[in-house]
Every structure is written in C-alpha cells, then in structure tokens.
Amino acid sequence: MTRRGASRRGSEATVQNQGLGEKRMEIEAKKVKELRDLTGLGMMDCKKALQETGGDIEKAKEWLRKQGLDKAMKKAARVTREGAIGVYQHHDGKLVAIVEVNCETDFAAKNEEFRSLCRDLAMHVAARNPAVVKREDMPAEAVEKEKEIQREALKNDPKMAGKPPEAAEKILEGRMAKFFEENVLLEQPFVKDEKRTVEETIKSYVAKIGENITVRRFQVFRVGG
Description:
The chain is α+β, with helices and mostly antiparallel strands. 59% of the residues lie in helices and 15% in strands.
C-alpha cells in the first residue's frame, strides 16, 4: 500500500470515528433528557447515572435508587410548612439577602445541614441576584419583551441572512433558555458548585435529609438601592 493510500484510509477512518462520536453524544443527550423526564432529577445526576450504567435507562434508574437520589422525586409533592430563614450579609454591611426555605417538619428545620443550605442559598441570591424563584413566577410580559428583543436582534443580524425561519427559532429558544438560566433562581448554576444548578443542589439535600425542600421567596436589600 502506498503512503498516499494509507493516509487516505486513515483520514476516512478519522472522519468515521468523529461521526460515531457525534452520534454517541447525540444519543447520550437524548437519553439524559429521557431519564430526567422520567425521574425529575437534575441533568448532572442523570448524566452520571447513564455513564455508570453504559447508557441503559432502566439500569440508570436502579443506580439512582441505590444512590438515594430518587427520594428527591418521591418527596417533591409533599407539603412544606416548616422551614428557616437564611441570611447573608456582605462584609461591608451594604448588602443583605434573605431567603425563606421550607421543609416538612420542625425537626428537619433545626437540622444543621438544612440550616447550612439556607445560608448558602442566601449567599447565592446575594451573588447572582435572580429575579424569581422558578420559571413560572416570571411575568408573562417580561418573557414576551425578551422574546421581542431577541427576535429583533436576530432580524438585524447579518449572519442570519438567507437562513430559514426554523434556524432563527432554534437560536431564539437557546437565547430564551439562557435568559431563564440567568434570572430564575432554581435554574442558575449554584454559586458554590457551578456544575450543578440550584435546583439540583436542593434535590441533593432532599436525599440527605429525607424531606421535601422548597424555596418560597427571597429578598435583597442594598444601601441606596
């Protein structure tokens, strides 16, 4: 075999391997979404479960149960009437964040891990300044205004010239997802571990403490604000 022939075959093999790699990534992403829809758990937890079980959905669900993470899903519907207030004050005394975090029992509310979560959430709110707790809390007019702004920006973007409407809609979806990630507390990357969202962090505490945990409200006070 000539060097040129060997080189050509090597290039073809590389392209094929890249294609297979992209296909595996696509399948994995679809499976992560499927497992997340089935369990209600966070993306990182579902991805980890699939990696540990070779991409098998049923085995991944079993793995999650063994880790105790499915407890978060089962407890999500339970009523939370107890809880605690998390408070964070900036070192200069000019900013204070307060968060009300609810749980099921007074016993859990006095748990030191629960109290630590409350303080960490208050610190997160002070650092990331979310607008609302969950996506459903975002005013419809604010969502529509952002969509209008992004649609106009896409319309005026020279890079979008000649592209089909479907392409613009897909980009719009991505920008709106980013909008929610930046403004919705539960969807923000957690300030102490940005590989997890705030919601995923809370669910990990649900598994530890054994009770449903929800964030009811928060408030930030700034001097002169």
